[in-house]
Amino acid sequence: MWHHGQVIDAPKKSDRGRPRSGTNPRPDLSASEQILDAAAHLFVERGYAATSTRAIAEEVGIRQASLYYHFPSKEQILEVLLMRTVEPSIHAATYLSTAVAEPAVRLHALIEFDTAALLGAAHNVGTLYFLPEVRNERFAAFRAERSTLRGVYAALISQTITDHIRGELGETLTPDAASAIDYLVDVVFGMVESVISIRADRPSEDAAVLVDTIAQSCLRVLGHDSKSIRVISSSASALLIELTRVLEQDQLGS
Amino acid sequence: MWHHGQVIDAPKKSDRGRPRSGTNPRPDLSASEQILDAAAHLFVERGYAATSTRAIAEEVGIRQASLYYHFPSKEQILEVLLMRTVEPSIHAATYLSTAVAEPAVRLHALIEFDTAALLGAAHNVGTLYFLPEVRNERFAAFRAERSTLRGVYAALISQTITDHIRGELGETLTPDAASAIDYLVDVVFGMVESVISIRADRPSEDAAVLVDTIAQSCLRVLGHDSKSIRVISSSASALLIELTRVLEQDQLGS
DNA sequence: ATTATCTATAGATCTATAGATAATGC
DNA sequence: ATTATCTATAGATCTATAGATAATGC
């Protein structure tokens, strides 16, 4: 499994301020990080509206009102979680959208990166994408990020579809072949996101196998055969190593 | 698009009882059906916890407390919606699990039926499957139905995987080939469910194209090529007609 | 008499704010 | 003085129940 980002920003200074009433279960993390972690856990488990600020505070070991010293609102907590979750994928997609490699190889690398990130994240935070609240205007910025990500997928996918499949689409499906390609983008994007439900239903023992299965399945949907997939897959491994190196570099820069 | 079920049970008798304060926007439906429709709309749009019984009642044109004459609780409303949504798929799967046709043809028919049902249902009720509340013990019966459906998919998928792909799984992925097949089941099941998010993001203009794209993509993932898919697909069309005939028959019986 | 609504309300939340307090830092 | 907590609470919900009421049916 690859590491990426996941830096803890505020490494906890000392013991300023009034002591907590409860015990501090994670003294290594700053209070803000503890709140985000507890909120992620509860939002994923019960949903946003069904999670009270009291429940979050209880898990952290502070009083409900103390949350508001760190965050101005419950919504803001969700927004930070959403942005943090999508951020690594955006960085990977931005790099891969212009990297020097075949589009199919870049797509394969992106799919591997994304699925691995979703499977590796704490508390299956990918489920937050599907919370009904995310459709509120309040979270438009997050949805814009997702849309950017989808755009990179769309570009790479349209370049990865084999001529053979492209012919099929025009032939058997519809006079408007462009829309059929759009649906293929949706299908591939959906396959990547399906790791979220899969992980929710049966917490995966073997993430690597699932990541490979999905990446290979995506290429098959785009018309590639086993031989072609083998070639693409091994080139993608090298690109993925390069990618993680670049992302770590960026991390140090920012 | 195929029709299936969607029978209105209680066709509204007459005007018994105290008149409503508001106007009745759907006098053709019984009060219970109006409540279910309004709840479906709001649960899909805002989620379960974020939808108040007051909001449901307002949409129906009655007072909040009047809901409780028709349903004992808000949870019960959600349960009826969940059960009704999964029911047609269960019937189709039960029939197809033993129908006389190649497994690949039966799988193709099931995928077409399911995706079309999800795309055709009022208010995109498939999104209800993803509400966090559904994980509560309260909805175990619904989850059991879904699990039954998944079982039929698993059986048909394992019989539809080409020997070629089966060889690949054992060879390149893992020593435990059974688990790799399980992941393919997840992937295919996930592709079917992806129509829910697709419809949520961009309400589909052309359901038929999307249904075909997904069914074909599933077969590709299982190792079939264009020629094989064409044959399977046309046999599936005939089976699908037979299926809808049988389901309508059942409908009359019950 | 039965049905389907209504009004009123109990009791339990829930978010966010105001202001007090107990630490450390300077 | 600054920081990070605490207590207390306002004000706005929200679900479900109790009992009244306005129709139709017999």
Description:
Two copies of one chain form a homodimer. The first copy, chain A, is mainly alpha-helical. Helix content of chain A is 67%, strand content 0%. The first copy, chain A, contains ten helices and no strands. The first copy, chain A, has helices at residues 31-46, 53-60, 67-70, 74-98, 103-120, 140-160, 163-173, 177-201, 207-221, 226-253. In chain A, α5 (103-120) packs antiparallel against α9, α5 packs across α10 (226-253) and α8 (177-201) runs antiparallel to α9 (207-221). The two termini of chain A are 24 Å apart. Mean pLDDT of chain A is 90; it is low at 1-9. The interface between A and B is large, with 47 and 47 residues. Chain A binds a DNA duplex (26 and 26 nucleotides) through α3.
Order of helices and strands of chain A: HHHHHHHHHH
Largest interface (C-beta under 8 Å): A-B, 47 and 47 residues
Mean pLDDT of chain A: 90
Indicate the multimeric state: homodimer
Q: Structural class of the helices, strands and pairings of chain A?
A: mainly alpha
Feature tags:
homodimer; 254 residues; mainly alpha; 67% helix; elongated; DNA-binding
Can you summarize this structure?
Two copies of one chain form a homodimer. Chain A has 254 residues and is an all-alpha fold.
Record the SSE blueprint.
Two copies of one chain form a homodimer.
Chain A (H helix, E strand, L loop, with lengths): L30 H16 L6 H8 L6 H4 L3 H25 L4 H18 L19 H21 L2 H11 L3 H25 L5 H15 L4 H28 L1
Helix pairs in contact in A: 1-2, 1-4, 4-5, 4-6, 4-10, 5-6, 5-8, 5-9, 5-10, 6-8, 8-9
The structure holds a DNA duplex (26 and 26 nucleotides).
